[in-house]
Amino acid sequence: MIRKVAIVCGPVLATVVLAIGVAQVGFAQSRDGKAKPGQAKESQQPQAKGDLVELKLKLPKPAFKGTPANAPPGTRIKKPTGKPRPPFMAPKGTKNVARDKPVTSSDMEPIIGEIPFVTDGDKEANEGSYVELGFGVQWVQIDLKKKYQMHAILVWHYHMTARIYHDVVVQVADDKDFISNVRTVFSNDHDNSAGLGLGKEYEYWETFEGLLIDAKGVEARYLRLYSSGNTSDDQNHYTEVEVYALPAK
């Protein structure tokens, strides 16, 4: 009927009727949120600021299969899923900025290996790939040389055998002495035995996947990683640390 009236009454009325029709379609679309046939559907979600992409991680070869069924007494550990770790999403351009960066330690005369092993790129479970520090609370510190926006921190201790490291704490700061603007990005020290505050994270079995920490974009230049022995011995070990980041704005 509308089409017939438009033809009889001329182009002016046709324009008015067409406008009414469009308005009715628009009203119907706004009520049910669905596009009508022949009309483009509008995006319901705005594009997120900064596209996220899967972070491509190169993992070392596994030195053993699975993990022990029972955790040692006194440890707080989540039951392993037996599945690969889910992909980690990070902003485009995020890359490892820790490679070959200077490393210092609370124990500058390690029992085995050299302190620079921590950032030399060798993360395989081989003799000669790790540094062994003394007993008690020990740390290694990485100077990224400038401030970065950190999105993921990947840590391998000794992963030739399954073991759990105690009091694993990761902090970042703006100065090398860790005095100003110190922030904890990971801690599983549930009893504050390391003296750095109570941690809420779970302990974990050391494997070839390493510990992947979501740093949530924290900005800092220095990174310090603590531990206090493990379930196999009292020593502290580091095979490799990677920091996936973007330059700070």
Topology:
Blueprint lengths: L1 H8 L1 H22 L19 E3 L34 E3 L3 E2 L6 E3 L25 E3 L4 E19 L12 E5 L9 E5 L23 E17 L8 E3 L1 E8 L2
Antiparallel strand pairs: 1-2, 3-11, 4-6, 5-10, 6-9, 6-11, 7-8, 7-9
Helix pairs in contact: 1-2
User: What's the CATH first level of the largest domain?
Assistant: Mainly Beta
Q: Please provide the ordered H/E string of secondary-structure elements.
A: HHEEEEEEEEEEE
How many individual helices?
Answer: 2
What's the CATH architecture name of the largest domain? Answer: Sandwich
What labels describe this entry?
249 residues, alpha+beta, Jelly Rolls, 7-stranded antiparallel beta sheet, two-stranded antiparallel ribbon, 2 helices, 12% helix, globular, disordered N terminus
What does this structure look like?
- This protein has 249 residues and is of the alpha+beta class.
- The protein has two domains: 2-32; 52-70 and 88-247, Jelly Rolls, CATH 2.60.120.
- Helix content is 12%, strand content 29%.
- It is built from two helices and eleven strands, in the order H-H-E-E-E-E-E-E-E-E-E-E-E.
- The protein has helices at 2-9, 11-32; strands at 52-54, 89-91, 95-96, 103-105, 131-133, 138-156, 169-173, 183-187, 211-227, 236-238, 240-247.
- Strands 3, 4, 6, 7, 8, 9 and 11 form a seven-stranded antiparallel β-sheet that branches. A two-stranded antiparallel sheet has the order 1-2. Strands 5-10 form a two-stranded antiparallel ribbon.
- It is globular.
- The chain starts with a helix and ends with a strand.
